[in-house]
Amino acid sequence: MTAESCTAVVDPRYDRNSLYVAASRARGPLSLVIDVAEVDAHVRAARSQETRQNDVTAEERRALLLKLLSRESIKTSTIEPTEFAKAEVASVRDRQRRKKRELSHEL
Hints:
Blueprint: E1 6-10, H1 16-23, E2 30-34, H2 36-46, H3 58-69, H4 81-106
Parallel strand pairs: 1-2
Helix pairs in contact: 2-3
């Protein structure tokens, strides 16, 4: 859905595709909102035990967001894999039927 303006809440689970989809929802102004506490928690979790209590810097936040938002992931589907197999079988069956009909018309 496209809107005149959009506000998207970006979290560490986002990847490149998620960010693109969120950013492409607005014709006009776009605001990206980041939960600093959640980003800080991810930064601290990646630190050594001794430095986890130190304050998180803006540079560390930016580095984490750049790393996370630049990753690629395989686009998932809401369709079950078994549905793909059923659709393929049905497609093959339909092609065979069409071919039979075409051949019967030629005779």
